[in-house]
Amino acid sequence: MGDPIQLIPQITTQSKNWIVRITVTESIPIMICSTGSKLKRNVFTDNEGNEVMEAIYGHDMDVLDLMINHHDVYDISNADVKITDPKYQIITNPFQWTIWHHTLIRSLPEASPNLQYFLNSLTSFSLISYAKRAGSKSADIMGIIIDADEMKQVKYGQNNVQHFTFIDTEKIPICVIL
């Protein structure tokens, strides 16, 4: 009989010999820390929608980041669990899992993620500026159009533009020009 699969909230700094089945629901671009080392972060979500921030640093990132793909399902075990400094915390879970060369990562290609994982991977409007500062050139967003201006022709060209105002689930408005 295999080890029992646990949920993200069950894993703390004192947890030993644990396995959690996760889906990579958000992939944050590589950042350079103030120390000069590279940092790659992802958000992992279990099958009940609980989230945890994952981090890979330095040399471990060169190998391990290639193994972890956005929206794929994995069994993770033996990550280093730490409490996140509140100034770096972007989800409600206070813990961060640091993935390193001793972390066990088993890909589950036969497991298909639930639609809820994809909904959790959407970037809220309040985090778009953070993603841009982190170097991301795109973000998955979902919103409702609450206002649309008339289409206008660009003065120096043959293109048309239109202004739209969207809101997301947090009711944050954003103006988009298409």
Task: Summarize model confidence as the mean pLDDT.
Answer: 83
Q: How many β strands by DSSP? A: 12
The ordered string of helix (H) and strand (E) elements is: EEEHEEEEHHEEEEE
- How far apart are the termini? 55 Å
| Count of helix runs | 3
CATH top-level class of the largest domain? Mainly Beta
Q: Which helices and strands occur, and which strands form pairs?
A:
Layout: E1 20-32, E2 38-45, E3 51-57, H1 58-67, E4 73-77, E5 80-83, E6 95-99, E7 104-107, H2 115-120, H3 128-133, E8 144-148, E9 152-153, E10 160-161, E11 163-167, E12 173-177
Parallel strand pairs: 3-6
Antiparallel strand pairs: 1-2, 1-4, 2-3, 4-7, 5-6, 8-11, 9-10, 11-12
InterPro entries: NA-bd_OB-fold
What does this structure look like?
The chain has 3 helices and 12 strands; from the N terminus they run E-E-E-H-E-E-E-E-H-H-E-E-E-E-E. The mean pLDDT is 83. With 178 residues, it is mainly beta. It has a 7-stranded mixed sheet with strand order 5-6-3-2-1-4-7. A 3-stranded antiparallel sheet has the order 8-11-12, with no helix packed on it. Strands 9-10 form a two-stranded antiparallel sheet. It has 2 domains: 113 residues, Beta Barrel (OB fold (Dihydrolipoamide Acetyltransferase, E2P)), CATH 2.40.50.140; 53 residues, no CATH class.
